[in-house]
Amino acid sequence: MSNEGKKESLFTRLFYAGVGLGAIAVEKLEKSVSKLIKENKVSLDDLKGHINKMVKDIAGKKDQLQKEMDDYIKDFVEKMKFARKKDLDKLMQKLEELEQKLEQKQLPSDKKDK
Fold this sequence. Notes:
Layout: H1 3-38, H2 44-80, H3 85-113
Helix pairs in contact: 1-2
């Protein structure tokens, strides 16, 4: 398998792992809440506090996963040697400079022909 195929496979696995973690978290939350309610061990305020804590934990993991994905994509783009916008802009500027120099050199010869 090529490096590109391995990286795509890794990306796919990371994506599905994230989806799986989300599903597991929801399932665990539902079981925990059901158990606590049945046993009358928790008040509504306590439940809200626990849910808020879990949401914050998940949000923190989301940010970490997003950073890892950003790093992976950046690394992938660099290894694939894709031209970035700033590289293309620099190339266009150089091309325009060369066109201007060429025009300047052609102008005196055009005047001689007339």
